[in-house]
Amino acid sequence: MATFTLNETKQALLKLYPLRIPVLLNGASGVGKTSIVREVAEELQMPLIDIRLSTELPENIGGVPVPIDDDSNYFKKILNKDLTPAFENGAVLFFDELNRSTSWVRNAVMSAFFERTLGGRKLNDRTYVIGAINRGIEYRDVEKLDKALLARFAIINVSTAIEEVMDYFDGRYSIATSIFSAKLEILSNKIYSENRYDELLPTLTYRNLEFAAKVIETYYNDPFLRKLLYAVIPPNVADVILANFDFVLVRKVLNGEDIEADIDTASTVLAIIAGMHISDEEFLNALRFAKRFYDKLGMKDGVVSFLISVAKRNRDLFIRNIATINKEFPEVKKLVDP
After folding, report:
1. 152-206 pLDDT, tens per residue?
2. pTM for the whole thing?
3. Are strands 117-118 and 92-96 parallel, antiparallel or unpaired?
4. Are 188 and 56 spatial neighbours (Cβ–Cβ below 8 Å)?
5. Domain 3-205's class?
6. Does the N-terminal or the C-terminal CB of the chain have fewer CB atoms within 10 Å?
7. Which residues on adjacent β-strands are paired with residue 158?
8. Of 243, 303, 313, nearest to 278 (Cα)?
9. What is the SS3 string spanning 24-75?
10. 91 against 170, higher pLDDT
11. Is the pLDDT of residue 249 over 80?
């Protein structure tokens, strides 16, 4: 399983925010989940609404029905908790201790994650809904969350590295940091043994694959891509998907450079390019690379397969370059309408 340091957790939360993927933080109590969410709220320039679900009643979250007037049979919901920013200008809505709450309370907040409503009211488009659970040793007896429910989240397992803690302390407690640093290994082992928790593994469903598709489509050129995928699909599946994936090679091909690659890597690069929004020049560079590469292998149909993929996934690009394709690659002229 893959864990995220505090810095990685913050980075993941900021990158997942525009994708509208519900996020669930998992970690031992005191690991720093709330602090990171607070930093994310500050960076997004929105207020943080921190709600400890273990101490809340369902009506505090979803509201209570009350008569509109004495003679009416209609009801409306009045929210007891001040959630106004989440409805009006946007806020980071943080539901902590989700697994220590009652099923009634969880049902009241699920609409915020999945339907972006709360108490029958629509959340502001800017509002970021984040959940958190504590799964340390002391919480072995808390109610387990349903697997079908967990499958609807990106799951970030938060684990603090001792070096991160020292960096945080250094600017605030210089003397104490010096003393702690001399005992770093002992402290690290002790903290780990006292704060172990059960990690959660993202599930593999069509919904999670769509999460992965959103992540790849947005961050295919980001070094953090693999880590983000670890939050939305099982890490071993993410590794399979990203096998032979190297965007540096993709960029070189689009720039007209030659690359050394085996057939699996070259095929993956060309498959990625076939679905990208690229310029005519980049497309022709990729087409020329495909011809050179497949000609070396004696695979005359390789370039044809690439063009068929482009024609299906990026037809406008294909049509714009018909004349050049016919001129430079007469062997594939049969693909083009006369």
Report:
1. 899 999 987 667 667 767 667 778 777 777 776 676 666 666 656 678 888 889 9
2. 0.73
3. unpaired
4. no
5. alpha beta
6. C
7. 4
8. 313
9. EEECCCCCCHHHHHHHHHHHCCCCEEEEEHHHCCHHHHHCEEEECCCCCCCE
10. 91
11. yes
CA-to-CA distance for 250 and 259, rounded, in angstroms? 9
* CB-based contact 77:120 (threshold 8 Å): yes
Work out the angle at residue 17's Cα, subtended by the Cα atoms of residues 12 and 22, and round it to the nearest 5 degrees: 90
User: Do the bridges between strand 92-96 and strand 154-158 make them parallel or antiparallel, or are there none, so unpaired?
Assistant: unpaired
The whole-angstrom separation of Cα 239 and Cα 139 is 31
Six-digit token string for 54 = 């273990």
Helix 33-43 with 6-16: angle, nearest 10 deg: 40
Both tokens assigned to 337: 């309408």
Cα distance between residue 140 and residue 144, in whole Å: 9
Q: Rounded distance, CA 59 to CA 63, Å?
A: 5
Q: Quick check: helix, strand or coil at residue 97?
A: coil
Computed over every residue of the chain, the mean pLDDT equals 82
What does the block give as tokens for 282?
Answer: 């980049």
Cα distance between residue 95 and residue 52, in whole Å: 6
Q: Are 50 and 183 in contact (CB under 8 A)?
A: no
Cα(121)–Cα(58) distance, integer angstroms: 16
* CA–CA gap between residue 269 and residue 213 (Å, rounded): 17
pLDDT confidence of residue 142 = 45
What type of residue sits at position 262?
D
